[in-house]
Amino acid sequence: MQRLQGLDALRCLLVIISVLRGIYIILGVYFSLVCVSLSVIVQVRMVRRKFFSLSRLTEMGCCSCLGFLSKSRRQLRTISGASSQYSQEFLLPDDADVDGDLYNGDSFFMPYESNGELQQRKKGSEEILLHRIQSGMICREIPVKETRHVIRTEDENGNKMVNEYVRECKIGSGSYAKVVLYRSTVDGNRYAIKAFHKSHLLRLRVAPSETAMTDVLREVLIMKMLDHPNIVNLIEVIDDPNTDHFYMVLEYVEGKWVCEGSGPPGGLREDIARRFLRDIVSGLMYLHSHNIVHGDIKPDNLLVTSSGMVKIGDFSVSQVFEDDNDELRRSPGTPVFTAPECCLGLTYGGRAADTWALGVTLFCMVLGEYPFLGDTLQDTYDKIVNDPLPIPRDINPHLKHLLEALLCKDPKQRIVLEDVAVHPWVVADEGSIPQFLCRCKRMNLKSVESADNKTSADVRH
Length: 461
What we know:
This is non-specific serine/threonine protein kinase. By secondary structure, the protein is α+β, with helices and mostly antiparallel strands. The protein is 40% helix and 14% strand. The chain has 13 helices and 16 strands. Helix 6 packs antiparallel against helix 8.
């Protein structure tokens, strides 16, 4: 009897196990179907994104430069209404001194929100700059040289060469590129060359919808437009579609950066700091008048020539706007030079943020230290937002007033560059900073004068 009961219990257990196994199999099939469905949805969305990106880049003439299109179809297309010397191809960077494999051209642009809806598209810097080229609003009289091939060799002494340039030494590096000093075998001059890898730039995410390639593309386009004595000049861009390398050939500024030699004992003399500041303000006013925000004003990006002139460099995080609306969300600058409104994670005005960074730079020049510096990044941001400005009591009153105006925590109350140019400490015995009349401004004035003359002639008749 007990044996029969045991067999019944075993049969029941086997039935239960069979039922559970069936449920397990059904659940497995169900989840497999769910995974397959999700995979299909993701693939479809990726195809949609990729198609959008490639079609947009094709319209803009970028693809052949990036290696997305077959080499045989790569053509140089001139821009209607602009000088034939300007190319519609947007040259894009590459990185160091090491050979790399060609990247596969996968797109990283994301025109869709996280919920799958198409974003409302805004004009990017590239389109704004292209429109300026088509309209003839270019400051440069001599266009940037564009080279489509790279020959990497060595000279008779074993020094590495890139085309006509012989390597001398490395002079700097950043998150995107190395900066190397080269000498030209053609004119004998020295040049600072930024060397990039395109594949690295495409992999490096800097914002939800941007890679480092976007930043470098924008930097090249901006520098191809600019011509000002206080801005580093771009000489040549070298982009070979058959390699992963890209080079920006820049004028070499042999002097020191503006704060080198200053330190806690006292910083620079006021007259030297004033001369430097006047140059920086002149260059920055020029940028802002062309709706360009630098985004990373700091001593490291301000180079002093052997004659004592300051030149603004590094436009890797700069932004371009269509008009006076300079609202930004991304704050990619250096933390200790970041404006209070940028620390709060809100939208902010790019021009006002540049002005704050100018104030921190002046503070560093005259006092040899940062105004707000914490033990951690968050501590630094807290000090920038909340702490009062630590100015010594015995400082020049005019200088004190200027520092307080530049480093005003309320961006709406912060001094503007036009008022800095006529500030008593800045003017001193040298007068106010003159407005630079660039080529495109001169062309505008001529157009206005021609229109006025035509109107006057029509009225007389």
